């Protein structure tokens, strides 16, 4: 077909009328397939499927309510429904037809190429069929009397058992294959995915435990101190460091109560825990108290003041209590990074340095919670290391060279902890000794006590060989930025936490979004109200990660007004926790049922089985920590026991020689004991004197005494180690059974945290850098991973929701409305003919934030687009003229600028020139609108829809020709839109007409390009666009994905 001449303008179609144009658009020509195109389709299909499912769940309730209201409000319609049931039959047929069409439509449209255009949807269909087939096989085995492997408890498998096992194995196969594929991908960049998951899990469990225990058990000990007045802070310090008398207690009862309430934390927790890990002993703890008292009373520490302080402590009625020294974080470096550094560096005399450092906090309401948090963080990391050391897939073997400890950055309390790496390495040697010798661990420990060769090997051990991935994670886990970057990151984190806080806790819409989002994800994950209720009965025994909910960065808010505000809004955390617990309960019951452990005989029996399974995870973690500690203690005693045994054997040999010499008088005359305790005998003449016979008898007595002493010493050492060996043997026998149950719990825990996200399970690099680049990284990552993983976990339910969403779109969707109206739901029509639209989707749908971006024209998930996700980088990007698909126009509204048609922009200057420029967002406006509170105030105060702003950021209305607002709002709309959910009051015809004007404007721009372009291919493309428009295409602007 010949092209028009270049000087011949294209005929632009007339602006379509208000009524819908019933013209079926022609199918666009099929584009050539490419790897980039498949990647783009892959990301978009995953995200769009997730959004469609979330939107279907949100829209299903109001749609049903609205339909029910319309039916019930029309008595004639109800009567007609009963008198003419064919109408109902017809509607049911239409609904069924829509669902069937939703399933087959992509295959009719694309054929075999559906794998290219709809990869996730196709995968979901395949997985659904696979799961149905596998489930049918498992069902046959179960109906035939088969039971799962766990329930059989070692019984030989019958044919029904094997059928059931085959069905379950087939059901798990897709997820297993996906895991192996993920292993290969991770392996290509040198990461052991399994080791990474284990190492991060141990850290997450330990950190979550510290968070929960601190909140539930420790914080109640700080309540009284938080109520003290500023004038009482100094008195509290004096009471805690010097002790106090009965008179002091009577004079300041509130202060004394605060000290006594806090005392158990030091006596019951800190001292025992630090002693257990070898970081503190009784002498050091006492020295710390004495020197702190000397410094407080006499203002200096020397021999005289220390002796006087010790006498003072002995006489005082109420003894001092350890008070950690807490400082403002910006005031000191990594060396003084923890609250307990002063008692663990081994130099209590440095108290003067600590006391005089700037930033010392005296307010107990601030330093007490921080001290609790620091302690639980330290304890959690020590537990974390113990669990890693117990795992033979992470710590591979003991070595003769240094390793493990020297690879980890150490500071503060950890510096002293990692000084004794040999003990941990020896524990690993003993852990593996039984496997190497082919005997039980208990027998291996017995051999270690008696075999000199094993003792020599044990003494030679210096370090351990770790899985490289686990070692790198540990290195990053203990890494702390220093130098210039450290203080900078502290300030940056403060700003970023403030932004997170304003976008969540100070944003009224966030609360509704959290509650609705949690409900959507719970429904999508299969949880019901019954699961939530049942889980509430054992919530206190649930995995710690499900209970450690709260805002990101909350640990930095302690003592601030933001921290106090968090405490007042804990209810929303309870909603999050309830949803997680419901998902967890559903999954753990499902796992137990498939394993044949759980049979739903009664609600009481079901709850009992689930409760017993759930507690196994905590018991297993505690046992692993105890086993590691007992093994380290045992390893430390082995050399001492061996030495005591050698001394006993030496004394027994000497006694035998002495007795032999005393029994032969002819030898006794020259018997003597050497300075080293050896008995020396020389043959002499048989005529020995009576004195020398007495000397021989004395040698026997002395040797007997040494035998008795060595026997007592060995018995005493063995008595102590026998209890440890017995406890170790009991723990090791319990671990396999608990580990089997804990696997069910771990899978259910992962499932719940996958659905509702958890920052605890982020890797160290993600925590240190990605969360700083992308403020809500953990949430976006969770939804991104969920979009790809949940089809493998719940294929049937995802298939149902996905097809329901497609069917619902075909039944109630309005193809004439623009894409940006897709999240809006029509609530009711007004008398003036307009419709009130409520934005149910969008902010209420958790998957709404998922979309693809492009880097160098390569599609990527938006989680890596930090220049858009990070408010500070985004502000700078837009301030220098950067724009994206959300920018309203190339030319800012109201500015004296024009688009030149070639992509450039020129402005009219006051000196009469037309100058090329880059439109930039005003800094003040960008900074103001970075916070949702500004947008909320705008919506509350402006009696119109805000679509544009002036130079300094104030809203500007869109006006009609007569000066009236084009998009006015009533007061109730302003309040609802600002505080609850966005509302539009617009006529459907006006919305469609506005969209057509936008399309028409785009066509005009294209028409201008046609006039000046000389490229034949470009002109041919533009001509085809206009022909396609005439056939019904290009009638809407597609929303950004």
Task: Please outline what is shown here.
Helices cover 64% and strands 5% of the residues. It is mostly helical and 1041 residues long. Helix 19 (421-437) packs across helix 20.
Class from helix and strand fractions: mainly alpha
Choose one word for the global shape. globular
* Average pLDDT over all residues: 79
**Largest sheet, order of strands side by side?**
5-6-14
Helix content: 55-70%
Please state the CA-atom Rg, rounded to the nearest Å.
38 Å
Give a quick account of the main beta sheet: strands, pairing sense, barrel closure: 3 strands, antiparallel
Summed up, the helix count is 41
Q: Separation of termini?
A: 35 Å
Task: Please mark out the parts with pLDDT under 50 across 5 or more consecutive residues, or reply none.
Answer: 1-9, 13-26, 330-338, 342-356, 551-559, 667-671
Strand content: under 5%
State the total count of DSSP E strands.
14
Descriptive report:
The protein is mainly alpha-helical and 1041 residues long. The chain is 64% helix and 5% strand. It contains 41 helices and 14 strands. The strands form 6 sheets. It has a 3-stranded antiparallel beta sheet with strand order 5-6-14. A hairpin with a 5-residue loop joins strand 9 and strand 10. The protein is globular and about 135 Å long. The N terminus is likely disordered.
